[in-house]
Design goal:
Radius of gyration: 19 Å
Distance between the termini: 57 Å
Number of strands: 10
Low-confidence stretches: none
Number of helices: 4
Structural class: alpha+beta
Helix content: 25-40%
C-alpha cells in the first residue's frame, strides 16, 4: 500500500515538473480556465479565452483582459483587452496622430478591418523601437479592443476577435 502511494506521488511530481519545464506558469492558465469552459460572457458577447491565456476581469471598469507570458516552449508575450466603456465623441475610429506616435515611441505599420461578434471595426497597428506590437481596434463608441505584445502573438489577437460570438438575447 505504501509503495503504491509513493509511486503515485512520484508520478504526479514528475508530471508537474515536466509541465512546468515545458509550459512554465502558463500550465496554470489552462487549469484555471478549464472549469470556466475557456470563455467569458460579458455584455451579450461570448469571448473565447485563447489557449495558455488567463483571464483578468476588471468588471468595475468594464474592461476584460486576456494575458499570456513566454515559457520554454511558447515564446509569446501578449495582453488582449476588451473595453466596453463609452468613448468620448471623436475619439473612436482614429489612429494616433503623428505627434502622439512620436511622443509615445510608436510607428503605425498597418490599418485593417476586423469583426468582433458581428460588429465591424477598424484596427490600427503600431510597432515600438523594440519590435513589440500595439494594436487598437474600434467597434463604435462603446466597444474597443487593444493588443500589446510580441509579433508572434498578433494572430492570437485577430483569431480571438473572430471567434467572439453574440449571445442570444433572453426574453
Amino acid at each position: 500500500m505504501k509503495k503504491k502511494g509513493l509511486l503515485s506521488s512520484v508520478i504526479l511530481m514528475t508530471v508537474v515538473i515536466v509541465d512546468m519545464a515545458l509550459f512554465g506558469p502558463q500550465i496554470f492558465a489552462v487549469l484555471f480556465e478549464l472549469p470556466h469552459g475557456f470563455h467569458l460572457d460579458v455584455h451579450g458577447i461570448r469571448l473565447q479565452t485563447p489557449m495558455f491565456y488567463t483571464t483578468s476581469t476588471g468588471s468595475a471598469y468594464d474592461e476584460y483582459s486576456f494575458i499570456t507570458m513566454p515559457s520554454p516552449t511558447r515564446h509569446k508575450n501578449a495582453s488582449i483587452t476588451v473595453d466596453f466603456k463609452k468613448q468620448p465623441p471623436g475619439l473612436a475610429l482614429q489612429p494616433f496622430s503623428t505627434e502622439m506616435q512620436q511622443k509615445i515611441g510608436l510607428r503605425q505599420i498597418k490599418q485593417r478591418d476586423a469583426v468582433l461578434a458581428g460588429r465591424t471595426g477598424d484596427c490600427f497597428e503600431y510597432v515600438d523601437e523594440f519590435g513589440m506590437e500595439s494594436i487598437q481596434c474600434f467597434f463604435g463608441s462603446e466597444l474597443r479592443t487593444r493588443f500589446s505584445g510580441s509579433p508572434n502573438a498578433v494572430d492570437d489577437f485577430y483569431a480571438f476577435m473572430s471567434k467572439a460570438e453574440e449571445l442570444p438575447r433572453k426574453n
